Amino acid sequence: MKATQLYAPTLRESPAEAELISHKLMYRAGLIRKTAGGLYSYLPLGWRTIKKIMQIIREEMDTKGGQEIMMPIVQPAELWQESGRWAVYGDEMMRLKDRHGREFALGPTHEEMITSLVRDEVKSYKQLPLMLYQMQNKYRDEIRPRFGLMRSREFIMKDLYSFDRDVDGMNISYEKMYDAYSRIFTRCGLKFRAVEADNGAIGGGHSHEFTVLAPSGESSIAYCESCDYAASDEKAELKVIHAEREELRPIEKVSTPDCHTIDAVKNFLNVPIEKTIKAVAFMDDDERLIVAFVRGDHEVNEIKVMNAVDGANHLYMADEKLIAAANSCAGFMSPIGLNDKAIVVVDQTVMEMYNAVAGANEVDAHFINVTPRRDFNAEKITVADIRMIQVGDPCPHCGKPLSMTRGIEVGQVFTLGKKYSEALHATFLDEDGKEKTFEMGCYGIGVGRTMAAAIEQRNDKDGIIWTRAIAPFEVVVVPVNAKDANQLAYAEKIYEELKAAGVDVLLDDRKERAGVKFKDCDLIGYPLRVTISPKTLESGSVEIKIRHNGEMLNFDRSECVSKVIDLLKTL
User: Fold this and answer.
1) What is the β-pairing status of strands 192-196 and 207-213?
2) Containing domain of residue 505, as a range?
3) Are β-strands 475-479 and 505-507 bridged in parallel, bridged antiparallel, or unpaired?
4) What CA–CA distance (Å, rounded) separates 463 from 476?
5) Domain count, the chain
6) Strand 403-417 and strand 219-223: pairing?
7) What tens digit of pLDDT does each residue of 283-314 get?
8) How far apart are CA 46 and CA 49, in angstroms?
9) CATH of the domain at 366
């Protein structure tokens, strides 16, 4: 490809709404353009990188036995109603009706579609295991699309679904995909960790997120430096913290005027924050009041609360009327005295406290000397791990202190079990002629997010720093003055030789100033730049710049192709 034929409109300034460096650089380097909020067009350079990521994914999926298909984006409501998700998926689902009034959705995911496809076609254990995948657009009506390709309303996803005869087979498929994902992100040149994760709206059992490590990441990751444990903050397991045992004192109600917060309570009563119990009141889609209790110095993990309460798919801050109906008031809540209109979830660490402070369910009043195992009604509460992880919490595997970092989720693997196959009555006959339900798995990669995450991880003040594997072009050949026929001819000869050697190369034959072309090269991030100047022309040499470290190398003209190929192997 020659630059004079390439549509690559670079910019010197970033769009005003761009916050992340990947969004800024993709726009400035001419990789994407915005159509509307959360909707983007991929320009040629961006699409070349997307295709390279997709090719890596295809190769690894095919190696593990995956077979590529393509399913409709427009999905009938009946399938989602059959699985029970039409009513509960939420406002992110883009819904529409055809001219006959029939309801459809723009697919946010394809569990229902793939299950119905296999249900209707696969009838025998002899057809298993089966792994089918696709790469296509998905649609989610984000309440606030932002960060460019990180949180958009239309995005490209690779989703593979596995179908097995039993749990052992499903776990084998899971391990295959786990290994394939590790290879994919390694081949893309990314620093990542596979972390234990929550399955969210997709449901199912075991799950790992593949997370690219970057300070700008939305995900918070807990990890152990002493073992291989890593988990998202939503999923991280937490050990019970046992308070030092004390002689129990009788519970007592005390006045705490205007003490609506934990800080106010601890200061007024002069107690350590570790001796207080904090309440957070939620309501779900069915307007049920759910009250979560954690130690005063801890934070409530909403995902864990939803997992602890049957049927709680979304949580919102509770309405004061709901709190009042449960015989309580905001700022002074505890399980002691709440009526049956409240669902009470207590963190496991709270249950190991002694002589603590908790709300008295009336304005300006708290209980002191609360010992939850004695004072909470065990029959009316759910005890679970519902707190957020903190730096220094003990690793659930080895007990050493945990560290925290941030990352960008680019892929996730799930074991679904029978969640969708049972709901959609997807069965097969085993070797004894008995009807069995498929064990399923689900495996997704955000293709655009992978590109954005690579930029977040590899950039500098001048622009993007691509790895060879996913760079839009591996090498750019730049004649300093393309108006000079001798320089241009010299550059074109090198360009043709590199092409013949299988190098993905661009010739920047634009009649722009050298400084403009060099800035564009660094901005776009080509791994290698081969420069032809009057000096190299005279000496019969070439100058090669390595983008990631700025190193400049000079070689004899006859060595150019071999040296470029050798350097590319290191990038």
Assistant:
1) antiparallel
2) 473-568
3) parallel
4) 15
5) 3
6) antiparallel
7) 998 999 999 999 999 999 999 999 899 988 88
8) 5
9) 3.90.960.10
